[in-house]
Design brief:
719 residues, Rossmann fold, eight-stranded mixed beta sheet, seven-stranded parallel beta sheet, 29 helices, CDP-glycerol glycerophosphotransferase activity, Teichoic_Acid_Biosynth, membrane, teichoic acid biosynthesis, TagF_C
Amino acid sequence: MGQISVIVTVYNKEDYIQKCLDSLLQQSYQDFEIILINDASTDLSKEIIERYHDPRMSCYHLDTNVGVSKARNMGIDHASNEFIYFMDGDDYLAPYTLELLLSNVGEDHLIGASIFKAGKIDIPTEIGEDSYHLRRLRGGRKIKALRRRSATNFLIRKDFVEWHQLRFDEEATFYTDLSFSIPAIVNSEEIPMISGVPTYLKGECYDPIDHPTLMLHSVEEKLPDLFYIYHKMKLSYGETKSISRYLDLLLLNYYSKSITNKATKEPSVLFDHFTALKNCLALVAPGRIKRRNLVERREHRLLQKGKKEAVLKSMKFRVRLRQWRRALRKKHLLMRQLYRTVLVKMPMKERKVLLESFGGKGYSDSPRYIYEELLKSNQKYDYLWVYDKQKKDIPGNPKQVRRLSPAYYYHLATAKYWVSNARMPNFAIKRPETVYLQTWHGTPLKKLAADMKEVRMPGTTTEKYKRNFYNEAQKWDYLVSPNDYSTQIFRRAFKFGKEMLDVGYPRNDILYLPDEEKKSRQQEIKTKLGIPADKKVILYAPTWRDDEFHGKGQYKFDLKLDLKKMQERLGDQYVIALRMHYLVAEHIDTTDMSDFVYNLSDYGDIAELYLLSDVLITDYSSVFFDYANLRRPILFFTYDIEKYRDSLRGFYMDFENEAPGPLLRTSEGVLDAIENLERIEIQYESKFNAFYDKYCHLDDGYAAKKVINRVFEPEKAEV
């Protein structure tokens, strides 16, 4: 069938394979066959593949996992067309890819094109001759065809493959593509290469922790493979100068960075592979070694003499030298280097407690209420509150330290206790003696961390975001949970294996004050904010949507509520308090509405705004879980629920059936609901009670005390 045999290998790619196959079947060029090798997948890959009934697809479901090399070789054996094209089951193509390659291959044996990382690539709907660049690689420049060391995105003639007996080395896994690509390049006089337009998209890694892509595996896993392929390719094709140079640089650069960095932390990586490393480095061209720096050249001589300990010592020196050179470029890098090398070795201050809320943006949330409960206890601690831009008015007169200031690094390194409701900086080193109490900041409605499939946030990738989140969660000693529902999700989404504190949220303790005290606090807050005492308060607290940004650091929010109409119809009885996400708060325009609209987005503690308000309007923000503790009306303004549920984050709970209030699509619907609150409360009474029993069952006003008894005074908890 057709001119091209597309060979797709699949192993546990249930999150990717549909996108991969759809991109193939939607190609502008349709004259091809698909040879799909399912390498004994244990997930739902087989079931997804079997949904397709295209006659061009030939599927081979293996009973035993044989590895990508053998699977591709099987695909070569089954290929019946003039050209072969390899794809991995977690990648996908731009719709014009096959046509573009076929129309430019001419009489050449093979043609290649650039490989792009998926995520933020804009793929044009159609392209012309001026949309891309075609260059012909000759001589030593042919090595540029080895982009990303991949054999994918080459269109290669099958008779050329057969004539030169091109196969993937089945003894290799991580670097097996080189065993196919290098001889293909050596035996081609010229290689046309297309660039400048997206063609082949490397899929994002959705689970870099439990299911990493091949190249995300650890150094120690990849080393035997690297040494094997380097040795074999060097002996077979080392006479070709460009291939020899490529292989030498591949080995030397991996040695200089990845192997060295890993060995300085885990010496066994060097010692266990010392002989293989020595033998491979002995094959490196002497001139290539001479181009390395003085320290590394001396290190190679020590390695050839078999002096393992001396090599390790030299590696550690090289790493420190590299770190300090980088640190001297900028002040913040210098502070982090001092933190890593000096401050974390200073004596631990056993009574020092470092607290921060939302990265220092406020004196609020559960860290606040834990702190205030600690002040009431007989325990004497030295408290430090982290602030971001300006100091806060905090009772007890604690020391306040600006985030990322020199003092911050010192206190971060020497504090016995860390208390936070969000992630600490990625560079933070948790010493074995440090006790890290993570309170988190909400009952999850939207998918979190590892449970999110794709991450669409400015300045990061799915793989980077999830890996950073995982590394952070492994530092936590205690994690506070507000209910049993959250406990199950936190365990999985954060991959958290230490102690869960199932006590409710300390920030909700204020919601269980006696009724008279609640009313008194409500009036105090109104007076402080200048809200008329006789006006009821509507609190509008929507979530931030992950896709609403112009670029990194540039966010937007389209306020769908008609505030002017609300003022016309409700202004006699109500005012509205806006609690927007801090990333978009400053973009909300409330001009000429100061007597009705109060933008309280920067108000320190949202729990006090709960007490202040008589009704809550929200959408997918977790605020409604907390607000339900007050048993006051909740309205859900969900104008984009399909998009949010199906495209952005997805929900854990059956939101549409469990929500303890009506889901309203229009601003007019919200207005009508507020004017008929009594009817809505009666209508949703049974749903509200069921919701309260499921999600508020741990909150009782004593969460902060329970946390302190376990974390700061464990001997009391045991009595």
